[in-house]
Amino acid sequence: APAGPLAGRHVLVTAGPTHEPIDPVRYIANRSSGKQGFAIAGALAALGARVSLVAGPVTLPTPPGVTRIDVETARQMAAAVEAALPADAAVMVAAVADWHVADATGQKIKKRADGVPPAIALAENPDILATLVRSARRPALVVGFAAETQDVIALATAKRVRKGCDWIVANDVSGDVMGGADNAIHLITEDGADSWPQLPKAEVATRLAARIAEAIA
Ligand code: C5P
């Protein structure tokens, strides 16, 4: 069995974007690369945790020691998170699409001769984090992420309370964080905000995993 401060602990991590199909060949997506979430999953496994990584569509390699569950849509991600419980902690890094296409068709949408483009109606996706914190099987520590471009600490502090999670990792995405190698984050807890310097995503992951180990080990 693996050694380390998180040996015997199960940690759930979501990462990457979701893809929401329009028809069999088209989808709505976002710019999440999955890098930060995969790095966090790897750092937790390196501390001995059993890690379930629910991953949206990305081409990244699975970190050593991590159990990966691949999903495509937000609704599939919600089901995979539910199926992976119980867990001692959850780190919700995924950039989950807020909406899916309400009437996704099984056939490829054709261009019309009259040139009228199709209308795409959207429907709300489940909020996986909000569902988890209200669940009877809520992990003892739930960590959410918040991507903001302004008033980062104030908005993330409000989001921590609104979402009911224990910590928020607030990302300043006004630069080229999405897809980039570095991340500048503020860790928001009930004690306030701890601002970290800009660091490689692997280093952010190592530090966050160490904080999680202090909290739940
Ligand atoms: O409200 P917002 O999308 O900014 O919240 C971000 C946090 O909530 C992230 O931790 C993200 O993984 C999670 N989330 C989720 N399901 C959604 C939307 C966001 O788990 N449908």
Indicate the mean pLDDT.
95
Strand percentage, roughly? Answer: 25-35%
Following the backbone from N to C, one meets helices and strands in this order, namely EEEHEEHEEEHEHEEEEEH
The hetero molecules present are: cytidine-5'-monophosphate
Q: If you compute it from the alpha carbons, what radius of gyration comes out, rounded to the nearest whole angstrom?
A: 18 Å
Shape: globular
Query: Number of DSSP helices?
Result: 5
For the biggest β-sheet, the strand order reads: 5-4-1-6-9-10-12-13
Helix and strand composition category = alpha/beta
Q: What is the helix content?
A: 25-40%
Cofactor: Mg(2+); FMN
Family: In the C-terminal section; belongs to the PPC synthetase family. In the N-terminal section; belongs to the HFCD (homo-oligomeric flavin containing Cys decarboxylase) superfamily.
Keywords: Decarboxylase, Flavoprotein, FMN, Ligase, Lyase, Magnesium, Metal-binding, Multifunctional enzyme
Region (Phosphopantothenate--cysteine ligase): 11-217
Protein traits:
217 residues; alpha/beta; eight-stranded mixed beta sheet; two-stranded antiparallel sheet; 27% helix; binds cytidine-5'-monophosphate
Brief write-up:
The protein has 217 residues and is α/β, with parallel strands linked by helices.
